[in-house]
Amino acid sequence: MMSRDARDASFVTAGGPESQYARAMGRTTTVAALVLALAACDVARAQDALFADSYEPPPPGGSTVVATPQLVATLRDQFHESWLASPAVADLDGNGSIEIIAPRSSVVVGWHLDGQVVFRTTVMGSRVWASPVVADLVAASPGLEVAVAARDRIYVWNAAGTLLNGFPHVARDEMRSLAAGDIDGNGDLELVAVTTTRLEANGQRDILVAIHHDGTPVAGFPRTRAEPRVAPRPVS
Prior knowledge:
Low-confidence stretches: 1-41
Number of helices: 2
Radius of gyration: 28 Å
Helix content: 10-25%
Strand order of the largest sheet: 1-2-3-4
Strand content: 25-35%
Order of helices and strands: HHEEEEEEEEEEE
């Protein structure tokens, strides 16, 4: 069977409809090249405008050579297996030493780099899907807090591994993502999770769950709650 390149070449030499096809293909290629060239010009103009406004382009250089990774530490748990969550790295207790926090099945473990276990908690259910959130959720409390979503529950512990009041917060199974952010603009971080079980009530449906650091729902979340919705903040 003739290859596409050979077939296109035969269209050019054969004449008739085939050569018309080839010319059309050539016009398409020309148009595509023109679009790319115009895009490149726009990028160049944008760069000129950016650099003219006191910005400087990055210095040339770099290398294609990458250093061979070196094993620094091996951190061990018992029989528990990780699901899909990535570990978090932070100075959990504020002592200047970095901790590595990772969910493993129904256990959340924190190590120092020397392998010492400095944080260990458990959750109900079979797994923690999403990566842990390590953040200053409670400004009045020393250190950072650790939050995870496991099946239908959200857990928050302080740096010492003590579960905060109001947790676990029970929502819907299964929550597979978790994030922290000040979504209501009050200066405190809230936790936002997404569930795979759709929430349906009051003629509405939603998959978002948002709670404060005391475990109470954020006003307007989920949308299916029978309460006035909070007007969105204007984007500055």
